[in-house]
Amino acid sequence: MARINFEVSSGVPPERFIQALTDFSPARAELWPNVDAQHLQMHEVGDDWADVTEGSSFAGGVWERNRYDWSEPGTVRVETVESNTWKPGSSWLYRVEPAGTGSRIRVSVDRRPSTLKGRLVVVLLALFGRRVLRADLQRVLSKLDEHRS
């Protein structure tokens, strides 16, 4: 199991970040580094939740079906329902709060491997996860900041 926590501050307002995090259109694959268009499939969506399969070609293909929940203001919970790598209950938690004209984003990642591939990825996450995931999020925020509407 790998548990990773980190924080990022950005000039992107909280509402804009949450909107990007809960946008499951084809543009998602252009914004988020670990989402490939061929692995993105929307199953159902409600006012404050979504059931989505997403993933990437990393390590020969890592995909997961997730339940997104943004019913609590400033919070997006992502829980794995099914995956070729992670056990159900693996998760991401984003807590987003205003910070000046931007936001502070606290991320908690809990990865529970279900396969050999998952166990290998957990080793990589233990070694490099915080740095890599934080850098990925900063790239997303930079793109959002460049394309402010």
Number of strands: 7
The number of distinct helices, counting runs of at least 4 residues, comes to 3
- The strands making up the biggest β-sheet line up spatially as 1-7-6-5-4-3-2
What form results from the Cα inertia axes?
globular
CATH fold-level name: Alpha-D-Glucose-1,6-Bisphosphate, Chain A, domain 4
Estimate the mean pLDDT confidence: 93
N-C termini distance: 39 Å
- Taking all Cα atoms into account, the compactness measure Rg is 15 Å
CATH class descriptor name: Alpha Beta
**SS-based structural class?**
alpha+beta
What would you say the CATH architecture is?
Answer: 2-Layer Sandwich
Low confidence ranges: none
Domain module count: 1
Helix fraction?
25-40%
Largest sheet, strands/sense/barrel: 7 strands, antiparallel
Under CATH, the homologous superfamily reads: START domain
- Proportion of beta-strand residues: 35-45%
Please provide the ordered H/E string of secondary-structure elements.
EHHEEEEEEH
